[in-house]
Design the sequence.
């Protein structure tokens, strides 16, 4: 890849204001958010509950149109959901219960017409192996644990080799030990592929571990507070603690209440 | 208690015992437990008990014109089967039933798909269901007789009416309760329109759809038998309802019971064989229903 292509914005989010309606009121989730993601980055959107980070991810996914501003992926304006932006959700029920692990991974490949027959099967098995679930390829989702289900969801999204991988707090519903292991596994998986990833989380520690670049949003409505470079895996504990402290101070500079963020 | 508190407590590290060294870690269930774990065995035992109660009560009553004994009913039933009369009537009924049931499901599917793809469709379905679902199918029979004449057409019409609303209502409520995450997953794959309905909504809503199909099946039977009590399917060649009605006129009560018994047996087979077969291969296998 030439240097030019590598530094040009891959995903371009310009002045995006998002609103959604509840039966009682109109809620502004984010207000004029600007950022861009370069190809191959692990871009983390970090903020407390109510900062509109999930809504922002849904807008990138194409489920929601901005009322102001625009989102472009590789120069193309995002209109509706599509298999070029695979989502991994927080919920364990994102797998189709009526399909086995293997069928869950092959289905998007077949449905989008990306691959057919044995080629789809081979690709799916390759990614199921990568997430260490080869023994469970013929199991149904209800037989798997929460962590295993999330691994299937990640395998399913990665097997599509999408332009961009959108992850909506995929590890938030897992216990702390499993979450830690899944973070390592995700980083190991990413090593081989150089996928571009947008990862939403409310955990500062997770953001520093996962991200190469971190976007901080403030709540009600979500606005950009900062865009920081993260540390690489080799950074020592002092540097991590310093960055954690810095992020914490930025998010809570105007409030004493820090309990909303872990 | 150590005065130093927490710091003085020693650490404990143990090695787990190998599983083989334990006593009983796993043992097979007893023969009785294994037998009573089979649903079919428990149900057959209940059936036998109900039959015994029936037999006992009928003997105590000793009035075959009111309640014939279970044995007399079974005898009449097997006699009817051997003579071929009961089989013929049952087949006539089943054929009409299946035609009406299939057409009802087709109509329900069309209506629900329209309802799921547009808001006007939803309104239409909700309105029609609330209007026609409470209307007993048999109340439409006089009208059907005028429109379609004395024969298959009228009965099929009232069966469609009885199946359509139950199936449509359940399917639609099933579609609406599909989790938002699964919906987003489907759209993420780029599915839309009929492909989206077929690949995501129908399997995800399958438990409700199956309930709708079962209710529709029961409604279809009721309507059919009731309609046949009014007249045979076509002059002389009636179904089970007509068989029951005719035998009542001749005061051949064991045969009346044999006719009812046939309806019950068919119901048991359909519920415990056909629907159960579908269930174990779909919703149970997928973990959507215990």
Sequence:
């Amino acid at each position: 890849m030439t240097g030019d292509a590598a530094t040009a914005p891959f995903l371009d989010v310009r002045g995006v204001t998002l609103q959604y309606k509840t039966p009682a009121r109109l809620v502004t989730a984010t207000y004029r958010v600007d950022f861009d993601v370069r190809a191959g980055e692990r871009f983390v959107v970090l903020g407390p509950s109510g900062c509109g980070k999930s809504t922002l991810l849904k807008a990138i996914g194409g489920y929601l149109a901005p009322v102001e501003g625009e989102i472009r992926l590789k120069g193309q304006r995002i209109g509706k959901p599509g298999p070029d932006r695979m989502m991994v959700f927080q919920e364990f029920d994102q797998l189709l219960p009526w399909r086995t692990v293997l069928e869950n991974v092959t289905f998007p490949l077949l449905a989008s017409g990306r691959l057919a027959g044995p080629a789809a099967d081979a690709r799916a098995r390759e990614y199921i192996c990568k997430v260490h679930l080869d023994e469970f390829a013929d199991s149904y989702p209800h037989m798997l644990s929460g962590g295993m289900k999330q691994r299937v969801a990640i395998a399913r999204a990665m097997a599509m080799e999408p332009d961009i991988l959108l992850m909506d707090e995929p590890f938030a519903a897992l216990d702390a030990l499993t979450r830690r292991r899944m973070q390592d596994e995700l980083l190991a998986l990413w090593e081989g592929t150089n996928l571009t990833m947008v990862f939403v989380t409310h955990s500062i520690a997770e953001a520093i571990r996962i991200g190469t670049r971190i976007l901080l949003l403030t709540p009600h409505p979500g606005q950009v507070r900062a865009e920081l470079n993260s540390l690489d895996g080799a950074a020592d504990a002092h540097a991590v603690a310093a960055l954690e402290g810095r992020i914490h101070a930025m998010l809570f500079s105007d409030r004493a209440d820090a309990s909303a963020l872990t | 208690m150590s005065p130093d508190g927490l710091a003085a407590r020693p650490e404990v590290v143990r090695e787990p015992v190998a599983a083989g060294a334990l006593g009983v870690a796993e043992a097979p269930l007893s023969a009785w437990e294994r037998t009573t774990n089979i649903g079919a065995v428990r149900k057959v035992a209940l059936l036998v008990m109900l039959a015994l109660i029936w037999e006992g009560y009928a003997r105590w009553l000793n009035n075959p014109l009111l309640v014939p004994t279970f044995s007399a009913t079974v005898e009449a039933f097997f006699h009817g089967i051997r003579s071929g009369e009961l089989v013929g009537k049952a087949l006539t009924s089943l054929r009409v039933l299946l035609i009406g049931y299939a057409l009802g499901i087709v109509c329900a599917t069309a209506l629900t798909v329209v309802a799921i793809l547009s808001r006007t469709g939803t309104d239409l379905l909700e309105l029609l269901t609330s209007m026609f679902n409470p209307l007993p199918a048999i109340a439409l029979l006089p009208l059907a007789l005028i429109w379609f004449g004395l024969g298959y057409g009228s009965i099929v019409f009232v069966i469609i009416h009885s199946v359509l609303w139950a199936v449509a209502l359940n399917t639609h409520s099933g579609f609406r309760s599909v989790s938002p995450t699964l919906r987003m997953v489907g759209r993420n794959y780029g599915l839309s329109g009929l492909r989206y309905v077929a690949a995501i909504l129908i399997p995800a809503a399958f438990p409700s759809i199956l309930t709708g199909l079962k209710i529709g099946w029961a409604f279809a039977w009721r309507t059919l038998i009731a309609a046949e009590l009014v007249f045979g399917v076509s002059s002389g060649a009636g179904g089970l309802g007509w068989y029951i009605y005719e035998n009542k006129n001749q005061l051949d009560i064991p045969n009346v019971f044999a006719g009812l018994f046939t309806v019950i047996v068919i119901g048991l087979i359909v519920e415990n064989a056909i629907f159960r077969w579908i269930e174990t291969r779909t919703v149970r296998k997928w973990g959507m229903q215990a």
